[in-house]
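Entry for the shared binder. Reason: the reviewer on the internal report wants the predicted structure included alongside the sequence.
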Amino acid sequence: MIVTGAAQDAEGSVARTEPSPAGALTDELWPGLADPAGLLSGITDWLTGYGNRQTRRTYAEGLGLPVSAADIAAAWTPTGTPSDARWSAAVAAYADAVITAPASGRAGPPPAGRGRLRSWHWLRWCATRGIDPTAATSAHVKAWLGELDEAGAAPSTRDRMLATVKTLYAYLADAGLVAANPAALDRRRLGLTAAAASTSATITLTSRQVAALHRAAGAPRRGAGACDVARAVAIVSLFTLGLRVSELCGLDEADLHVTRGRRALRVRGKGGKVRVVYLSVPAENAVLEYANLRGDGAGTAIVAGVGRAGRGGDRPLLVTRGGRRFARQAIWQLLRRVAAAAGPELAGVAEVMHPHALRHFYVTAAVEAGASLEHVQADVGHASIDTTSAVYDHAARDPARSAVDLVADAWHPTS
C-alpha cells in the first residue's frame, strides 16, 4: 500500500512502470499525500457506513488496503514524527472497522485469497506510482483501467473495481476531502457495459451435470474418510439451493432450524440481510448425514433443529478437518477437485467450475420449471428482481428452446 514508484510527469500524465513488489515499504506513511491520517479517517467513515463487516473487508481489500492485523502492523507502523498520535488513532479506527469482531462474536468468513490483480487495486496502484489519491484525475483512472485491461482483467472485473472506486470518491467528495469524483466516467464509452448486454461468462450447468457433480462428491476417494465425503456432498447440495460462497462459509449450526414444519437455513446475504432458505430433500439428507459423522457432538443438536452456540461465537455448520470455518478459496478448490473426478459429464467445465455456476443453475432451473421471478429472487437474495431476470436472460438458453435442430433437419435430413 505504501510502496513508491514513478510519479506523474510535468503535464500530469501517468508514468508507466511495473508495480513494486508487494510489501516493499518506504519511510512514508502514504507517498505524496499531505494528510494521510485525514484520508484514512475518511475511508474508515465510508466503510463503517456498511453494516456488514465482511462487506467492509471486501471493499477495503478491493481498494488495495490491508485487511489483516499483520498487514496493518507491517505497512502502517508510525515513524516517530509528531503526527504519530493522529495517525495511530486513524489506523486503530480503520482496524476496528475491518478486523475486530463485532460484539456478537461473529467475524464472518475470512476474505478470499489475494488474486493476481492485487498490484492493480486502486490505492496500491496509486502508491506504486507516487500519485496522491486525493488529487487523482480522470486521466489517472483511465490509465489504471487500461493497465487492468492489459493485465487480463475481464470487463466485468474492471467494471466492479471502477464501481468501488467511484463509490468511495463520491463519499470523499461529499465529505470535502476531494474536489471531485475522478471515477465518475461513462462506462459505455469505456467498453465496460458490453458484458452486461451479452451472454454471461458464467458457465450454465445442465441438470445432468449437477447430478454428476453430486454423485462425484459422494464417491469414495483416496485419503478421504467418511466424514470428508459427507462434507463434500453437503457442500454441493447446499450450493444447489442458490447460496453464495460467502453465505455458505458463514453458516453456523444455529442457522439450521425448523420453520413452518420444514427444515431451513438463516442465510446472511449482502448488506447483512437475512433470508430464510428452505432445504431440499437431498440437501437436508446431506447436511444431517454430515452432522452425524462429524464426531464432535454436532449431530444430535442439528438433527433436533436446535443449533448450538459455542464459546466466543456461533459454531460453523461446515468445518474443515482441523475444525475451522471454511475459507472461500478452499470451497472453490473442493468443487474443482470434485468436478475433475466427475468424468465425461463435466470434462469440459471442470477447470472453470466455481460456486456461482451452481447459483446460476438454481435461477435458470427454477425459472424454466415455472417458478415466478419474485419467488426466485427471494430464494437467492437478489436486492432487485431485475438482477434475477438478468441472470436468467444472460444465461445460455436450454438447447430444447432453440430452433437450430429444426433448421438442420430442413436442409440435412437424417433419414
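Summary line for the report: The two ends are 68 Å apart (CA to CA).
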